[in-house]
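Quick one - first record:
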Amino acid sequence: MKFLAVFRYRIFPSQVSLEPSTSSPTVSFGLFNCLIQKRWRKPTVSAQTRLEDRVIDSKIDKLMNHLNKLKIILKIHQLMSNRRRGPFVSVQMMSRWRSIIGLNVSIGSFIHKYPHIFEVFPHPIRRNLCCRFTSKMKALIKEEEDAIEQQELEAVRRLKKLLMMSINGTLHIHALRLIRRELGLPDDFRDSILGKYIGDFRLVDLENVELVDRDEEFGVAEIERWREKEYREKWLSEFETKYAFPVNLPTGFRIERGYRDKMKNWQRLQYTKPYERKEAIRVRTCGGVERYEKRAVAIIHELLSLTVEKMVEVDQLAHFRRDFAIEVNVREVLLRHPAIFYISTIGKTQTVFLREAYSKGCLIEPSTIYNARRKMLDLVLLRNRKTKQLLACDKFRGGSDNEMCAGNEDGEKELDRVVTLFESSDHP
């Protein structure tokens, strides 16, 4: 044995020590331990690993990419509208808004990509380059505002359903303000809706709104219409459809062994519906954790169904956890049910979509507000394509200095010269 120890020491002098050690160091790979079996450790499954291993939906991600550009354009319009000097602003001033609007390119190149939205002209007095929105984009923004005003009663219905889902019948105004665009609410909804319909809403304090009286007519979830349709048209039993959800597996989803049986048992699992008021489910009871999770899925499903575009940012859902009594990890629940929800990571935030509401990247049941926003998105998709309206020479806008023609060669050269001035104005 002593000879073997000396032989091992001569072969691996830097790895083996003959002196006894009090600690238990890790055994390095060598001649005498190459056949030792290492214990297999199960890989950790977390929300981050689920997010990285999920099946990518290219059509929804492409739609989200265009929506982020539209969001930047609307932020520019909001900043430009808040200025009192006029409905235009200098390009040099716009270059200072890059950090505010979250733009990672120069403002000059961004304006040059969308000539159907931005209009560039020299200031008649100061002679510096200024920018304003085109009449077509202004008309679409006005159309969206008119649609929101016409859908005022629908907005009241959405607010009442959200308050009925709350445990105490109250919600934070700040949480509603974060998703006011998703719910189709005006910017001044606190005065125009909450202050106008005092018979339905009551301001508890400066930050909370309370439902005055529950209307059981609104206490039916949107998923119940799908369940009734499945029960009548497909002749399914009530046991199969009473607590089921529409399942749309994405293309390329790998179905593991036993997944269909688990999904079938989960579809039949009973849960407390969003508008029901029953005793709390104990986690230690049979199926307690699964029922908690399924109730959270139902609440998020109902919240997404009440939005205009059937999507909302994941971080904004965290503001409703306490009011809706969601005691599970929201992101983990969304990723655990890829057949119902889809999380897009395009942009700086994560956005969750309702799968059943979209088909090939388009909303199946659009509303008037969505149609107005879709027209603005179509204008963004045009980019710098030469349409008939863009090719035609614009009329004089107050004088020969403001004349801009984008159809002929001189107009294109002038536009290129303007773009170079944009680039220089971004980097003074």
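second record:
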Amino acid sequence: MDVTSITNSWFVVALVFIITVAAKVARSRTLPGAKKTIKTAPPSPPEAKGAPLVGVLPAVLSRGLQAVIREQHRELGSVFTLRSLGLAVTFLIGPESSDHFFHAAESEIAVDDVYKVTVPIFGRGVGYDVDLDTRNEQHRFFAKTLRPAKLRVHAHPMVHEVEEYFGKWGECGVVDMKHEVDHLLMLIASRCLLGKEVRENMFDEVSSLLHELIGGLQLISMFFPYLPTPAHRRRDRARARLEEIFSQIATARKSSGRVEEDMLQELMDSRYGDGRATTDAEVTGLLLALLFAGQHTSSTVTVWTALSLLTHPEHLRVAVAEQERLVEEHLEHNHHGSGDGAVVDYGVLQQMDFLHRCIKEAMRLHPVSQMILRRARRGFTVRAKDGGEYSVPAGRMLASPLVVNNLLPYVYKDPHIFNPDRFATGRMEDNAGAVAGAGAGDLAYLAFGAGKHACMGEGYAYQQIKVILSHLLRNFELKLESPFPEPENMLSMRPKGKVMVTYKRRKLFCNT
């Protein structure tokens, strides 16, 4: 077994132990009414065969988690259970079996246990440190900051940051696309989320603090998040300093009466249902939650989309042609081609239909995470694709594996092929679940989740990814020099290693 295999194996072991701990917590917190006896209950989901105690762990270590899930799906159907080290996880595959998982009330299906590890990062009083009612109100704050009217405001500064960044590239060169995208997205975030004070005066310090904060999320953090390790101490110092920075910015704005059009200002101005204003600590935590979710998703998806286009020249040509057409139409309509943001604005971004489908297809083939986890607070009955019904007990850990759901051949034709046209009008394969009578048309495509916990930042993510990729398509000829990468490991689906790309500036358009 080589070093890469050993590393991946340890990530699998880590995942198993993490879920085991969560499951034990879940069982201890099951609602009182959950053990009520059902007179005639369907059978339990079929279980994969495995060795005593360790269960399927040897198979996962030798063949990989994705392979094991796919094997059991073929053998046992769309609902089945994997056991290992005393833990049982029931997998729900396909839109037919996923309705309760995504649409049930929080009292039925919970997410809080899975994300408790984020509390030391985001801080007390936000996210999964608060009760459901408070968390719902904070989600309302997010929804307000991410509505289309606000996205329109953010389009110009996004375009400005992208033009300025790529304007510093030479006529030709070689870059690591992962590094370039990560840095650029941090610049965009500092402008649109964190405030121009951060972008203009303390970008380097805040970037360093965020790096320390992320570095505090390690394997030991899953079990002992408050253990005074060096990484945790750096995390806590970074979190305290970030709160100090944003408190100073908020105080300065309030004292001067200055109001900015960024998400920091939106969260500062937010009010709970009882009229209470958000505290500086809450604003910091909510900002960090937005930043973490947005940066990871957008960075991963931007690079995978670029990789997919560079390895499929037929689709790359269509994407470039779309850019040429839209820019020409926009310039003709406005009778000019100069000025910041004149070529690409919010309206033009919304018309990038083929690029949108390319991004969507890249996320289907390369999801940001392998699976979505939940916990059953109460027992429920699930219907499998073949019509059979099974009883899932209270306290059971549940998984919706995107790496399988996204490749179902009865939903997606030739599911392993990159084909953005599968989402074109008139075809729309992601609605096949409803067409096939599954009755859950929103559950065939799950890149941004679905139901009560669907990602509210979908529009923001698409917008900033389009701004970056559309600029590259218009202004550069790109060629992938590295081999097409595998995902990093069993927990992260980012492209592994450096993604080396050669670029050559071209003059297809003016002032783009």
